[in-house]
Amino acid sequence: MKVITTPQEMQALAQTWRVDGLIVGLVPTMGWFHEGHLSLMRKAREITDKVIVSLFVNPMQFGPTEDLDNYPHDLERDRKLADAESVDVLYAPDASAMYPVEFKTSVHVHGLTSGLCGGDRPGHFDGVTTVVAKLFNQTLPHIAVFGEKDFQQLAVIRQMVRDLDFPIEIIGHPIVREESGLAMSSRNTYLKENEMEAALSLSKSIAHARMLVEKKETISPDQIKEEVRGIILQHSQCAIDYVEIVDQTSLQSCEQVTGESVLVLAVKINQRIRLIDNSTLIGN
Ligand code: PAF
Fold it and tell me: Which residues lie with the beta carbon below 6 Å from any ligand 1 atom?
């Protein structure tokens, strides 16, 4: 596996692959790989000829009081893990290569970015869409694979790709969970032993919501949200940022539960660790 650190070298290599008729896949990440990331790499390996994994902890998507400085980072650890998944290139540019001093552009997707995580993290999605647009131009993929855990992010990126005519197929890959049900996340490393039960309330409340929908013929989104909130708030360490049931494309609140409805949650554990999770309420 090759490690590339400059946009110029990355773009030149991707260009030669495209000229050779190879299908190029990108898995964008901020590193500290866990099984969730590895499953995205395997998916890309399965459906493309050349797999690029980008590793860039993007300062533009962190707010001033967020965890940028403490975000877990170990290039050598991640290099070995990506290599073991037969990734072709680990693309790890540094911040000065991504955002030179004269950098002046940002990409903003209207509407979809204002609620949910966008409400709690102003500017976050502009950081995400700007860096993802840059990564697309630097790695020239035919296909990009994103995790469904960042549900709003995936909807925003799909919208950007449609609006800006990126000739890239976006694949969403299912959440990978610990045996306990906890959705895998690099931020789980911040959780202390005595915070685990509180963290598990997210996946437990999702399982409860799915059970309610299965058992009850008519149940409104408001009733489901109330029960979900009740389960989470049994833990004094939890503070809810949001519990919503939204349409998976428009991200607008649902008035009734359908196959398109997704329960989305963001919860802060002890005011330190912000966890997100989501699930459809009908089907898989
Ligand atoms: O999901 C992430 O890890 C990041 O938001 C992404 C897509 C790599 C952009 O920095």
Answer: 28-30, 58, 61, 128, 131-132, 150, 153
> Is-contact 176 203, C-beta < 8 A?
no
Domain 186-278, CATH homologous superfamily name and number: Pantoate-beta-alanine ligase, C-terminal domain (3.30.1300.10)
Q: What is the pLDDT of residue 224?
A: 98
Contact 127, 223 (CB under 8 A): no
CA of 87 to the centre of ligand 1 (A): 18
pLDDT (tens digit, 9 = 90+) per residue, 222-235? 999 999 999 999 99
Distance 192 CA to ligand 1 centre (A): 24
The residue extents of the domains of the chain are 2-173, 186-278
Identify the CATH homologous superfamily for domain 2-173. HUPs (3.40.50.620)
Q: Which residues contact 17 (CB under 8 A, 6 or more apart)?
A: 24, 49, 50
- Using one digit for the tens of pLDDT, what is the confidence trace for 24-67? 999 999 999 999 999 999 999 999 999 999 999 999 999 999 98
Alpha-carbon Rg for the chain in angstroms? 19
